[in-house]
Every structure is written in structure tokens, then in C-alpha cells.
Design goal:
The protein is an alpha/beta fold. It has 2 domains: 174 residues, 3-Layer(aba) Sandwich (Rossmann fold); 136 residues, Orthogonal Bundle (N-(1-d-carboxylethyl)-l-norvaline Dehydrogenase, domain 2). The chain contains 14 helices and 8 strands. The chain has an 8-stranded mixed beta sheet, with helices on both faces. Helix 7 packs across helix 12 and helix 8 runs antiparallel to helix 9. The longest helix has 24 residues. The N and C termini lie far apart (48 Å). The relative contact order is 0.11.
């Protein structure tokens, strides 16, 4: 059974790009954003100039700042910053969603304090709706321009996963399925921290060898943490693990890598964040991840060093020395 209508909660670059994928596959789509002025501008100009400049929006792709316009949708994508997911979920829960509507979390993060993944927050706030997740190497700037990629949809219900796979799959956007929801979410969230570290290496001019070594060790650390927090080790060898890690650590489009690069060049984190329109999820996720690894007694030297850099407790140039001076051990 196919979906009748999709709603996208979040009018940023990723939400808009995913709306274009679904719309291109023939599904009626409404994109909701909380900023009425921004939504009105997108509707009028048929371009999301703030978050996705240069990409023309089809006339039949709807944009709204009224939550009521999404209540009849049987597929709802949640594509807000991680810090807003709980509030937005509560808002739509109170508004009253269509019975049985499928929720698809496309936000990458871990809630600070609770340690909950985004799908767990949605399941808590909207318990009567099946919850799935989507992740993989998929920068919005390229997806919106129909450059090819693959993603993975995580869902415990094979029937729902199949419906989502059919809704998203196209000639340029290939969707796989996997029932390891925890692994997919953790891979998508934690890789942003390692992208910060990779960016710092770029800002310091450490070279390709150092960056490749850092990313390789990051993958090992990611898998260890992810498995301890409920994911399967093999999931981190897939699209939401190594795939997303590579694109986020090396791409010019990566906000997290760019933030790290600016830190490596000597800019203050507060100044960098203040200058950005969009959220670099690796910053809040660093603190959430540190809470998780400390709680579970997991050794995570790269994440720990990134937190020290963000807190200004260690200079970026000293971070590499700290990592390399650790006790020698077998790989």
C-alpha cells in the first residue's frame, strides 16, 4: 500500500531536499516550517533562498506554517534540529495526527540528559504511530539537484520499511532497508562529532595521511560505542556508518567539517555558531555522546578530545599530540 500524502516537519535544506525526492516520485507533499515569513517567501519565490539557494521549487510542492495542514498526512518526516524534536513532537501530538500515520525521523542527534535517540523521543511523544529512521551519505545540496546517492531506512516493521522504500526510491535516490534502528541512528549522529575532528585536522593543515588515519580510528570508535548503545557492529560498515562518516568528514558541504576547520584555524566556537544559519549537530551531540560513554564506561578518546577542544580546555594543535601519545597497542 502506497502513501497518500506526505508532510515534512522542517523547512531547512534537508527537509526541502527530501520533499523534492517524494514530490518527484509523484507523492503530494506539504513542507511545514515554524517561521511564517520564511514560508511565505519560499511560496512566493519558489526557492528556499536561506537554506537551499539556487534550487527551483515546483509549483505543486506545498509550503505551510500551519500545523493543521499536515494532520491528514499518512507519512510525516521529522527534519528539525535535534534540540527541537521533543517540542515539535509534543506540538503535533496535541494537534492530533492522522490515525496510524508513519513517522520518519531524518534528524541526526542524541538528546542531552536523557541520551535518547530521535526515534525514541518520537515514540515517547506519539506512541500510536510507527516510527522509522532515514540516514546515509546524503548532503541536501546534492540530493536537491538529483545527484545520485544511497540511503538506508531503519524500521522494525518490514511492511512499513517496504512502503517507505518504495516511496523514496528513484533513479538517483536508492533506498535500502535495515531493522537495526539503533545502529542506523547512532551512526548518523556520532559521525558528526568525528567530522568536527576531521575539520580541525584540515584547519591545522595536517595532510591527507593524518586525516585518513583519524577517520579510520573514528570508525572503530563509532562501532564500539554504537554496539554498546544497542546497535549491531555490521550496521556501522554500511551507509549510515562508514558511508555517512566519509561524506561528512570529507565533503565541502559538511557543516560539521567546516566548523572544525574554522576551529583549527583559530576561530572561537561561539563566533562560528553565531555566523551560521544552520545547525552543526556535531556540537551538541559531542556533549550527549560524552554523557553516554561516561555512563556506560566506554573508552572514546577522539570524542573526549573533541569535547575538550569545544570547551577551550585544549588547543587544537595539542589534540593530535594527546591522541598520538596514548599507550601503544595492537590495532
Amino acid at each position: 500500500m502506497s502513501f497518500e500524502r506526505a508532510g515534512v516537519i522542517g523547512a531547512g535544506s534537508w527537509g526541502t531536499a527530501l520533499a523534492l525526492v517524494l514530490h518527484g516520485n509523484g507523492l503530494p507533499v506539504t513542507v511545514w516550517g515554524h517561521d511564517a515569513a520564511h514560508i511565505a517567501e519560499v511560496r512566493e519565490r519558489r526557492e528556499n533562498r536561506i537554506y537551499l539557494p539556487g534550487v527551483k521549487m515546483p509549483e505543486t510542492l506545498d509550503f505551510s506554517s500551519d500545523a493543521a495542514d499536515l494532520l491528514a498526512c499518512d507519512l510525516l518526516l521529522v527534519v528539525t534540529p535535534s534540540k527541537a524534536v521533543r517540542e515539535v513532537a509534543a506540538r503535533f501530538s496535541a494537534a492530533g495526527l492522522r490515525s496510524g500515520a508513519v513517522l520518519l525521523s531524518c534528524t541526526k542527534g542524541v538528546e542531552r540528559g536523557s541520551g535518547l535517540r530521535m526515534s525514541e523521543i518520537l515514540a515517547e511523544q506519539l506512541p500510536d504511530h510507527p516510527v522509522s529512521v532515514l540516514s546515509g551519505p546524503s548532503h541536501a545540496e546534492e540530493v536537491a539537484r538529483r545527484k545520485p546517492t544511497c540511503v538506508v531506512i531503519g524500521c522494525a516493521d518490514a511492511g512499513v520499511a517496504s512502503r517507505l522504500q518504495r516511496a523514496f526510491s528513484s533513479a538517483y535516490f536508492r533506498a535500502y532497508t535495515n531493522d537495526d534502528v539503533a545502529g542506523i541512528e547512532l551512526g548518523g549522529a556520532l559521525k558528526n562529532i568525528y567530522a568536527l575532528a576531521a575539520g580541525v585536522a584540515d584547519g591545522l593543515g595536517l595532510g591527507d595521511n593524518a586525516k585518513a588515519a583519524l577517520v579510520t580510528r573514528a570508525l572503530v570508535e563509532l562501532g564500539k560505542i554504537g554496539e554498546a548503545l544497542g546497535g549491531r557492529r555490521e550496521t556501522f560498515m554500511g551507509l549510515s556508518g562508514v558511508g555517512d562518516l566519509m561524506v561528512t568528514c570529507f565533503s565541502q558541504h559538511s557543516r560539521n567539517r567546516s566548523v572544525g576547520e574554522r576551529i583549527g584555524r583559530g576561530e572561537r566556537l561561539a563566533d562560528i555558531v553565531a555566523s551560521m544559519q544552520m545547525v552543526a549537530e556535531g556540537v551538541p551531540t559531542t556533549y550527549s555522546a560524552c554523557e553516554c560513554v561516561e555512563k556506560h564506561g566506554i573508552e572514546a578518546p577522539i570524542i573526549e578530545v573533541v569535547r575538550m577542544i569545544l570547551d577551550g580546555k585544549i588547543a587544537p594543535a595539542e589534540a593530535l599530540t594527546r591522541l598520538l601519545s596514548r599507550e601503544p597497542r595492537p590495532e
